[in-house]
Design goal:
The structure holds two protein chains of two kinds. By secondary structure, chain A is an all-alpha fold. Chain A has helices spanning 2-7, 11-15, 17-44. The longest helix of chain A has 28 residues, at 17-44. Mean pLDDT of chain A is 79; it is low at 53-57. Chain B has one domain (2-55, 64-367). Chain B is 70% helix and 0% strand. Chain B contains 20 helices and no strands. Chain B has helices spanning 2-5, 13-31, 36-48, 65-74, 78-90, 94-98, 103-108, 111-120, 126-133, 140-149, 155-167, 169-180, 183-186, 199-216, 221-235, 240-262, 268-271, 274-304, 323-335, 342-367. In chain B, helix 3 runs antiparallel to helix 11 (155-167) and helix 10 runs antiparallel to helix 11. Classes of the chains: A mainly alpha, B mainly alpha. Chain A binds chain B through residues 1, 3-4, 7-10, 12-13, 15-17, 19-20, 22-24, 26-35, 37-39, 41-42, 45-47, and chain B through 96-97, 100-101, 103-104, 106-107, 110-111, 113-115, 117-119, 121-124, 126, 129, 195-198, 200-201, 204-205, 208-209, 212-213, 216-217, 274-275, 278, 351, 354-355, 358-359, 362-363, 365-366.
Amino acid sequence: MSMIAALFEPLNFVENLRYMGLGMLGIFIVIGVITLLTIFLNKVTEQKPDEQPDQKG
Amino acid sequence: MEVLYQNLLHLDIKMVIMWIIGGILIYLAIKKDMEPTLLLPMGFGAILVNLPFSGAITQGLEEGPLSILYNAGIANELFPLILFIGIGAMIDFGPLLSNPILMLFGAAAQFGIFFTLCTASMFFDINDAASIAIIGAADGPTSIVVGQKLNSNYIGAIMVAAYSYMALVPIIQPPIIKLLTTKTERKIRMEYTQKPVSKTTRILFPICITIIAGLIAPASVALVGFLMFGNLIRECGVLDSLSETAQKSLANLVTIFLGITIASQMQAANFLKVDTLLILFLGLVAFIFDTAGGVIFAKILNLFLKKKINPMIGAAGISAFPMSGRVVHKLALKEDPTNFLLMQATGVNVSGQIASVIAGGLILNFFLH
């Protein structure tokens, strides 16, 4: 345990919090873009309901 | 006569401890059915490489087959990438494409990775801390690729932790989910309407994901690309035979070699250290905070939504496909035997697969210089 105790740097947690912020922001941006794109793809490629053939009396 | 027992004289207690660890992995694989495809080869391999002067690994100038396999398939990240083709071919993105909003839970459930990065950085240098944090991706191939690219000194322990915790998802997640949700929340019903997804969307989806991920996190493009290539083979409709091969033969073949080759890094001298215990603990922290991230995100959304979401589905964003989705489904059934959340949880679960790979790419973007 002595080696780990020697390496223990609690301030690193605070220093690296910016990576937590950047990482979560980055992942939400990428996933957000993918979500919007998927919604767009679903809309564009949506199958229209079959048109009823004209009724001729 | 001496030749028969001289090797025994080189046996030490650490090797015997590794046999016991190997035995436990084999026991978990066979008796508890926990990720047997990986834990069994890893357990056997742990015994194989911890025999005095084991010929399975390189000894001096004499090259061992597991060391050769390691250099040929893991040190250059080839095995995990090929396995990703098989995984991509196995995944049906249908439930996710039908309800794309579910993807946000996959993003939220990567919180454990970044929390663990900060925690691990108190004990390890930043590249090792980042490699340890990615255990929280709950995705073995991603852990291997990130650990290798960042040149981690703890790749063996990271791989063992990543695969072991994936197997332990049914044990780790339920108490965290129960701790963070009320009985009423766990009983929330979610309507599921399977909206039709066109073939064009299914084909364009893997291509678009590869382009987006490649543009934002270029270091992850191999991971995302191989996963999505596998999925494209599945969805294109003209390569059924290749899709079947990728899902079964290819994935099985790579898995056999992957498990036993990972074990080549479980030599007692490198593995039995306090650092390993700390890495196992940090891996657990990553899984716990991933689960918490997903559940808490769903609870926050519920503050604003008229139609409430069952917050348990957030936990399925941890990746660990398909165990995590099943865990949520079973928990919902336990609270109310008529509440079926399987489709929603599966949708979130596959989104976690995508999000975890992107998280790996972002980690590489930050620290790969």
